[in-house]
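Please describe what follows:
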Amino acid sequence: MVSQAPTIPDADPDAPIGARLDLPLNVQVFLNDRPMARTQWMILAICFLVLIADGFHTAAMAFVAPALTLELSISKIALGPVMAAALVGLGFGALVAGPLADRFGRKRVLIASVVICSLGSIVTASATGLTTLVVYRLITGFGIGAAMPNCTTLASEFVPAKRRAFLLNLMFCGFSLGASTGGFLAAWLVPHFGWQSVFLIGGAAPLCLAAFMIRMPESISFMVVQHYPDKKIRAALAELAGRDAHAQSHIAAANSFKLNEANTHQQKSPWKVMFEPRFRAGTFMLWITYFMGLVLYYLITSWMPTLVRGVGYSVSRAAVATALFPLGGTIGALICGWLMGRVNATRVVGAVYFLTALLLLVLARSTNSFNSLMIMTFLTGLAMNGAQTSMPTLAATSYPTYGRASGVSWMLAAGRIGGIIGAFGGGILLQVGFSMTQIISWLSVTAFLAAFALLYKDHANHQIQLKSPTDLPI
């Protein structure tokens, strides 16, 4: 007769670790009950670096455009398709990468995404004309678009729930840091080594990072959903437990591993999870919110200097006013993340979008005083960037493990369409004859729509929870 370890039938399998033996170990509860381990901090740091690289590559073409157009004899107007190619690539990369990550793993797809982005950047340095530039920027954009949602998904599945929103928002600040750092780096590299050096260095650095990422563990939640061997899951959990003998003993005693969410692993296609009745309304509301947010963001960042010049201020003052818009983004993102970890996250982000709409209305009427214009631009940017940065985090907590990467990536892809409309829409509105006051006032509508979409998402989630409390991810 084979002896079995004693069991505790009356123990709660969802209780904190230490309250049960020889029962299914809930890996989400395990992560939530423990302080962050070195491995978890390492994953956050890697994802932060990937987002720095993504921000750098998203903005790189704008920094080298003056030198590039001169050397390759390309007009500034003809450079438009090159700028748009990266945005198109971002959208396609996001659409494809999410379902692949839900099928084959976050780690594999993230590494592949970084490699594609790096190679796209390196070959961009060899471009000799407009056609090759468009193709190479499309490839680079595809890699960027595939990397961002997987960073969000992987990190969200490794950090404790109470700190998730704050840490993910902090991680996403790497994107804006990379974009701004690229400007300073390009300012030094281009005069000394030419515009090609920006893309060579920008491609080599993340390629080295991809090699280091091979040692990074796969998401434990993903391994549980995909029924990885218990040996692999146990080893990953043991690495997080470190020298904690108490936690190690319960990992060893567990007879299986589980998640605290509804069963979705029987779905044939991960992306179908987004359109299940319990998630469908939330999916469309996330798309609308992120779409509206990027219409607003790209229109302001692309056309703010022109708008400020149009009301009579100098070029230098227009540049200062425009720079203030993203300056408070990091502060706004951290405030939103802190609040999201303490109260209803959907309501927090929705409220910040509503605040953005109100601030835009005030900003539209602050053009007569430059000091007022600067203050309102800073405050509007703080709120707007805080809400927009929080959206991937909110999406990551809105879906179960099996469809999480798809949910995040498709929301990002929907937003890219809004970004393209915003970038081109400002020029159309100016050609029609709209003033800065009129354009900014109308932009407040996009923020109001984003806020109301999240309000509806929260209402839909509440109705689902009343019917079946286990139908939504925790």
Observations:
- The chain has 17 helices and two strands.
- The chain has two domains: 38-164+173-220, 271-463.
- The first strand starts at residue 24 and ends at 26.
- Residues 271-463 form a domain with the Growth Hormone; Chain: A; fold (CATH 1.20.1250.20).
